[in-house]
Amino acid sequence: MLFAAGLGTRLKPLTDSMPKALVPVAGKPMLEHVLLKLKAAGCDEVVINIHHFGEQILDFLRENDNFGLTVRISDERGELLDTGGGIRKAAPLLTAGDDAPFLVHNVDILSDTDLRALYEQHLRSGNDATLLVSPRDTSRYLLFDADDRLCGWLHKGTGQTKPAGFTYDPSRHHAYAFSGIHVISPSLFRFMDERWTGKFSIMDFYLSVCREARIGGCIRPDLKLLDIGKPDALKQAEDFLNGRT
After folding, report:
1. Helix (H) or strand (E) holding 121
2. Which of 215, 218, 212 is closest to 202 using CA atoms?
3. Is this model's pTM higher than 0.85 or not?
4. pLDDT per position in the chain (245 positions), as tens?
């Protein structure tokens, strides 16, 4: 699943007339870069959610014959559902009677990660979800135990932690930054009860159920990643794509 529904507020005024997914990065829309990376990793079916200027994304996909992929659209033009709500809405498209895991990727993330290797690690792990993480500098960290299982969340600036009742112990918990890339097995949906409907964050969901569900980390200490959802990063993207950063 490719998240392409965001409003792109950090990229205004570019996104006053186009969706974030179609903002050019090194001469090609963000959406194209990520679709081609997914295709190169062996993906042949993609679910894309749309909201802001969604019709432009539909036109772009038609003009490019879906880049040779089977593309299904999860239409959120009536209501933007955030990451968790977006995944739940798209569940029938993502599973379609199949128990195979699916990879989730933000449209505004460029990385050098091997998506196939991430997917295969998830298959071996027995996790309900596997999150690609790395020791990047950030203000918000995911916390994992010695078995690389998600335990909590920490805001380094304020000391706030999640979920309720969780206590951060730096001697027991390892802090990593989330990449916006994860693999989910359909088994995760059994934890989405009536509390998890409409608009909600997938990270809030993960943190709420991590004591019951098996949410693991795929830790890549040398991960190179660029969040291209902000103006400064657009200038760095060409060097990043050409391996110069």
Report:
1. helix 115-125
2. 215
3. yes
4. 999 999 988 889 889 999 999 999 988 999 999 999 999 999 999 999 999 999 999 999 999 999 999 999 999 999 999 999 999 999 999 987 778 999 999 999 999 999 999 999 999 999 999 999 999 999 999 999 999 999 999 999 999 999 999 999 999 999 999 999 999 999 999 999 989 999 999 999 999 999 999 999 999 999 999 998 877 787 788 778 876 54
All residues at 6 or more sequence positions from 57 whose CB lies less than 8 Å from its CB, including other chains: 4, 19, 21, 22, 31, 48, 50
Strand partners, 152: 143
3-state DSSP percent of the chain in helix, strand and coil, to 5 = 35, 25, 40
Place of tokens 């990520």: 34
Contact 183, 130 (CB under 8 A): yes
Give the residue carrying structure tokens 């990451």. 83
